[in-house]
Design goal:
By secondary structure, the protein is mostly helical. It is 61% helix and 0% strand. Helix 2 packs antiparallel against helix 3 and helix 3 crosses helix 4.
Length: 238
């Protein structure tokens, strides 16, 4: 297991539950689409729920210690759910996580470009997203100075703008140790490992940190056990 805040039984239950929820969403979406048409609002709501379930499943699989290659097979479905449901009102956290995971997994560029399309269509401007997009697609020429969520993400501008890789690595480690988790105190998943509901906690991972480290080619030697850092995914090359 990569996350030891929960038991193997918890992760097995979580993964099974999320797979069951995804299947239930598939059935609901197909039924509503057949009765009301693909453009009916209920279909979009079904994809919103399915998107949330896929993100929890990916998080749980990574937390459980599942092979990265297994997680990668699910990524096209993640892209589909975002493509069919995401707007700027949908929230930032799932979006930046999905983009960051795709970068670490080395998915085909057209999958990342689908997230680019969504940011353009929604006029969704963010410094960190611009950096992530440019990291895998040099044709992405946008650079905004604004942050959708300044806390804790604005700290990452110092990581990205540092004069040396050594300084970038030092600051990224500081972000992970001192900024990332406490910066999400208001989120519903904060301290969720203490929740008795076994179908809630899926793990705490700062996927954007792994994506930034991969793009900047930072030396993360000794970070295998660094809390919140997705070391295995950041080093995936399959």
């Amino acid at each position: 297991m990569r996350d030891v805040l929960a038991t193997k039984e918890h992760w097995d239950n979580m993964i099974r539950y999320m797979n069951e929820e995804i299947e239930r969403s598939n059935i609901r979406i197909a039924k509503i689409a057949a009765e009301k048409g693909e453009d009916f609002i209920g279909v979009k709501r079904g994809y919103i729920r399915k998107k949330s379930n896929y993100m929890s499943l990916l998080n749980s699989l990574y937390s459980s210690g599942a092979p990265i290659s297994e997680i990668k097979t699910l990524y096209p479905s993640v892209v589909e759910t975002f493509s069919k449901s995401w707007t700027k009102e949908s929230g930032y956290l799932y979006f930046i996580r999905a983009v960051s995971i795709g970068i670490m997994l080395g998915v085909p560029l057209e999958m990342i470009q689908e997230f680019q399309r969504l940011t353009i269509e929604n006029d969704y401007n963010d410094y960190i997203l611009d950096f992530l997009f440019r990291g895998v697609d040099p044709s992405w020429n946008k650079q905004h100075d604004t942050f959708k969520f300044a806390k804790p993400y604005k700290f990452l501008s110092s990581v990205i703008g540092a004069e040396t890789k050594e300084e970038s690595a030092r600051l990224l480690k500081e972000y992970l140790e001192k900024e990332w988790y406490k910066g999400h105190k208001g989120e519903g998943w904060y301290n969720s490992h203490k929740n008795a509901n076994a179908n809630f906690y899926s793990g705490y991972w700062s996927y954007e940190s792994g994506a930034i480290a991969k793009i900047l080619k930072l030396d993360d030697t000794g970070w295998e056990s660094l809390k919140y850092y997705p070391y295995d995914m950041a080093h995936y090359s399959g």
